[in-house]
Amino acid sequence: MRLLQALAGLGSGLLFGAGLAVGGMTDPAKVLAFLDLGRAWDPSLAFVMIGALALAAPAFALTRRTHKPLLAVAFAPAAAGGVDRTLLVGAAVFGVGWGLSGYCPGPALASLSRPSWGLVAFLAAMVAGLLASARVARMLSGREDG
Amino acid sequence: MSISDAFTPVEGLVGGALIGASVWVLLFGLGRVAGVSGILSMALRPSTPGAERPWRLAFLVGLVLGPVAVGAVWGRAPIQPSTTSWILLIVAGAIVGLGTGLANGCTSGHGVCGVARLSPRSLAATGVFMAAGFLTATVFRHLLGF
């Protein structure tokens, strides 16, 4: 069972990485040409989103009529809670980093087979930020209570 | 504003569809959402139960190998190095990690999967990180010339 789960994970990751590569998302300059509205605009990223949503939306709709996934006991529930400060602050902070570099987590990791010092520095800092985020989240939600 | 010559709508849609297929495999295989920052974070945290780690590590391996397969089949180099200075990449990486950790998701988890199921949290997060990304890239990279 665990081997099959790992194979499903591998297959999903391969498709994801291949999709990013075909869509041009493993070229940070292309991502920045989408986000930078001041020069010749490259709307390709929007088409990647449209292509992904066209398949993902019916998948989630179908889970409501599906008893359980093939290799697990149940579908994992969606994150609880509503739109709170931690979510909005996090999304804004992430967007700034994305706009500075042209990298979000998927494309940065998917570029590892062609490593550069800049990419490795980005990924190391990203992992550090990700691991530190739980502590920062507690600070933010603490202020929300008080 | 003009449309860039580098605009690739067909590759964008095909790449997006591959990402959508990746969402299907993970959802109907394991009942999980294909969110890269969450998968990475859970793969790295020591507190993650042993049975929860292998499929995540396998996904990350697939994510790295996907673009390699595309390069071999397609005869193009899909991965392009960043031209951004490594100091800026460290700053960007840290805040991408922190932000996606706080927001509990990135472009894949919120932007594709969350939007696909019309989650209010994901719709809010995606609106905020897209706005922050556009604003940062346009002001910082274009107007300030970084």
Average the pLDDT over all residues of chain B and give the rounded result.
Answer: 95
Q: Main sheet of chain B, how many strands, which sense, barrel? A: none
The chain-level structural class of chain A is mainly alpha
Total discrete domains of chain B: 1
Class by SSE composition of chain B: mainly alpha
Kindly, what is the distance between the CA atoms of the first and last residues of chain A, rounded to a whole number of angstroms? Answer: 46 Å
- How much β-strand is present in the residues of chain A? under 5%
The topology string of helices and strands of chain B comes to: HHHHHH
Radius of gyration of chain B: 17 Å
Number of domains of chain A: 2
Helical fraction of chain B: over 70%
Reading the helices and strands of chain A in chain order gives HHHHHH
Q: Work out the largest interface and the residue count of each chain.
A: A-B, 120 and 118 residues
Uncertain runs of chain B are none
Beta-strand share of residues of chain B:
under 5%
Largest sheet of chain A: none
Q: Whole-number average pLDDT of chain A?
A: 94
